[in-house]
Write a sequence for this structure.
């Protein structure tokens, strides 16, 4: 058990919210692949905070520093390590005692797992900030997949139960809803859909090697994800086989299905149709409304008021993260 | 990538629907654990077909034969191999050519992956029959967990969109609905909920080591699963943080949450609350209603009529399978 | 930690000396590979006992029964499971108490590891008999490698310190020496050399992914191996760099080295030269000469006399085992 | 296949000789372990160059910078990343064409594996410099093992065939021999013995999970190692079973063996006796004497003269590296 993705490509994410740096090691990338670091920076910018009214107003530079694995902008076969330095770290000793766990955060469960030694500053290793190195790896994976004509694109289907209509990344109606909860110190969740185009038929494996197993395993590595469904997902449970089955037909020489209820995966293996899945993102647990919690030291029930500015809705910033871990997973399967 | 579960306990499932035998190797079980093989047989019986009107009328003995790993009914530390002999196998050469893939089965995707060499008799390695060895491993895992006061129980929430009301395993209303589709050669899917009680706080890991990653990876190893959601799952996407967050409180000396929207997992790590998740099971793709498909040999679009008797609804038989892979996963995390 | 070989091809060996069967699961073999089972039987025969004066007189049939993974003599992509049934097993309960561990066997260390629950009949899972399923996997790997023009050949360099001169598998002088120790109830060890021809340059990896790491890891899975050296091995420690370095030259278009002190591996990666290594096999610890041991029950020092007929020298039977695990390892690296 | 050590503790080494930094990620260390960074620096100093006449005169600072995983000098459960910045790196594009591979270096085999994209500056990822991050991980592992009363100590047995007599780390006779080859532009290899004390009986596993498999796999991750032998090693091949077997006896309540020919490992599992093994280190391939090689561009045989100052003997600096990877391996098995 361990926070490492993949078997062929191994991706290890390290860092805490307030450690010297956060980063990622990507091991066993093929050698000789050109990485466009400007494009990568643009991808990272999609995850960065402080860009608009619906995300936190903190400013993080998120400047990528490559420590190894790249020669003349190309992968050299050695593990690629890239870091983002944290600018707000303190090196001196400090009080690391967790007294009051924040509801629906990892504070309590991590406290028990690590016997109270986990870094609690800013959520430590459980901070959403750790999705930044995931996006470094994912942005690189996306570039390699693009060279194979495989695209990974996620979009917001709904936020707070409001359907995301229109062509914009987020509709005005949703932005208004986010603004509304922000002023009240509350937060909203949402649903993201991800589509992978270009994966040929025959990729994946049986049992826990299934594409659904691999993708879901990676997706749940992202904090705040509570569900995943492939193709028509939970809806299939209300359908008859005759309604749910996807008829095959020849599109020229290519076998395709008329519908895609199966979401591009049959028996754990790609069918050649687009891989489609949706994930549920919970509302940010960091809210400034008073909550009930416990004081682990005094063993009393207490009221908790969380200070600071937080994302009223992390769904928009989760979109590139979904793309990132999906791209990593698909790349792994393609090698 | 490979159909092996687990890192500490390694579970390998082998066999095809018509091979000599199907079976499982369970590697690295602790030594000295007493296995109750009568209890295991009872667990297996829950998955067996031919028991009632809503499953297939085929009769399979599913008699477990232990080849290794057990001495005097106790695990001996060596890999445990148990098999179920197939009685309907043919050893002589035969035609293994797939001409017409069945819609929403693994026929086509497996054909591509294995260059046409996969065993197509009865679905081969992709047959639902391969969940039998999974249940051997899962039944053993359940017994070991029970010794740690951990229980894994799944139940049917709905079938074909009909809520499963009352105390029975399946309500009369649902049995009637299944009978109805059976007579029409059609099939139904459904939703299963699984609850794991007794897992202490602090189990699991970060990133793709999260309990959600591990459980979902195992669950999607079962054929026909199209979605999984933890706690309140997709519903969280419509809630505000103030509604979704689960307040902590002291229940005597024990920290608990007043609600369990998080489903017993926070930051990938158990919170001590019951682990709760739901899965969507698609309607059996094997229906006797005429369907559209392709002839891979002649490259023509064709009509397909599947013969034979099939489960009009595999949801009831999926219930022990869900328990099995969940028990395997939780046991792995507890060691 | 677990008795599984490989990451791409996963090989799991199960069984005990007196369990119902011993066997192997080979997972993720490419589909469509024709296996010559007669050739495999011939390979197995090289490991089988009872063939001549220098091995044990027990007769084991070692008849391979394929349970899964083969369709029309070809791999079908599903895990291949093959077993050898044990004919001398007892299913009723019996006394499994280890009282007196045999010197230089696994009896004592396994007893501690498994808290006394390990199967002690005939050495249980630690019996040399478990190299039979390894040879099934290895024999298949050899056939697949042969299709890529890669050969794996081991031979005996010396036994009991006597150099194995001449063209025979074992020289008459050595057979005489084995006969001699056999009559005295003693045993002999020896040195085996293995050469892998045909591996192209560029196979392997860095760090613990080095070919030496992979090969040595597999070799030490065979009981009784106490050392391994690549190329000129330990001799290099007495040489100067100018003597030990292997000069490159062009042999036509192919880069070769004039000497092969490096044993075909540089920086963990194949150089294109033959891969050469030697292993030390200890004398069979089963001897009928009286030995000193302990009674774990009474906690007394005791004398031990081991009954039964045992190999006076397992070196000849180790030769195909060395080839087997080497072939498995090289195949894994070639995929 | 990948340069990652371990399954429970995962250690990833990254960096090239001339990349921005070299470093290591250690994943899944237990939380709450105090690390003495002064002691770690002292351990690192044993590997550092430029300290005496028998190693290279280059000066590397090897200052450890911890990026993550440590809070108040204690492990916090999150992956520990520590780096050493390289001071001589060039960020601008440069010529990365390998023309003439150095004999017995990884130049040629890596060139083939990575299609010429590997970083060739200073040996790239294959540089002995990459043992520095291994020593960071190993130094930490040694500290954790010491808390369990397990010690890992290596020493030089011989260099250039000269036995290392006396109490000194290196005898005067050997220093003189090294000085001698240094003036001639040549180099020497040697033999190192490593002893692990304090490992309780019962640690390890069967097959490729054997302690010998695990230790040898790690040892061969160190460049220049050509052989490993456990206990009496290759000598056992000349002994009779009656000479080689180690008699058991009770030392008070503890079972011990009178001799330790088995090197503390029986059946892949620790016996409680000291774990003892020896490794052969080849002479540094970097010599300044003219050598024969090939020009890969012009496809001609050429003479090669390597410039620069290099270790005439890396054996002394390999000693802490041997301890490092052994400590990592033993720690992995003890968790």
């Amino acid at each position: 058990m361990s926070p490492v993705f993949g078997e062929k490509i191994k991706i290890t994410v390290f860092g805490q919210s307030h450690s010297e740096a956060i980063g990622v090691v990507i091991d066993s990338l093929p050698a000789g692949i050109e990485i466009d670091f400007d494009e990568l920076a643009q991808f990272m910018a999609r995850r960065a905070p402080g860009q608009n009214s619906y995300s936190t107003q903190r400013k993080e530079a998120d400047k990528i520093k490559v420590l190894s694995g790249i020669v003349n902008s190309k992968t050299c076969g050695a593990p690629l390590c890239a870091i983002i330095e944290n600018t707000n770290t303190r090196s001196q000793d400090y009080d690391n005692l967790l007294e009051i766990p924040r509801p629906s955060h990892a504070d309590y469960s991590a406290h028990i797992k690590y016997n109270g030694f986990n870094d609690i500053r800013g959520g430590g290793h459980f901070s959403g900030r750790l999705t930044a190195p995931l996006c470094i790896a994912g942005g690189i994976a996306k570039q390699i997949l693009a060279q194979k004509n495989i695209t990974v694109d996620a979009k917001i289907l709904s936020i707070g139960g409001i359907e995301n209509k229109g062509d914009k990344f987020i509709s005005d109606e949703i932005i208004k809803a986010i603004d509304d909860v922000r002023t009240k110190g509350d937060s909203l969740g949402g649903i993201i859909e991800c589509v992978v185009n270009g994966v040929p038929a025959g990729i994946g494996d049986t049992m826990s090697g299934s594409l659904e197993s691999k993708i879901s395993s990676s997706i749940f590595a992202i904090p705040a994800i509570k569900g995943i469904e492939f193709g028509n997902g939970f809806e299939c449970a209300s359908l008859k086989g005759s309604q749910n089955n996807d008829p095959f037909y020849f599109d020229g020489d290519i076998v395709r299905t008329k519908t895609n209820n199966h979401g591009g995966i049959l028996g754990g293996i790609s069918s050649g149709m687009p891989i489609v899945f949706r994930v549920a993102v919970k509302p940010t647990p960091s809210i400034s409304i008073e909550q009930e919690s416990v004081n682990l030291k005094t063993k009393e029930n207490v009221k908790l008021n969380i200070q600071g500015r937080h994302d009223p809705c992390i769904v928009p910033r989760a979109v590139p993260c979904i793309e990132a871990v999906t791209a990593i997973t698909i790349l792994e399967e393609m090698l």
Q: What stands out?
A: Chain A has one domain: 4-334.
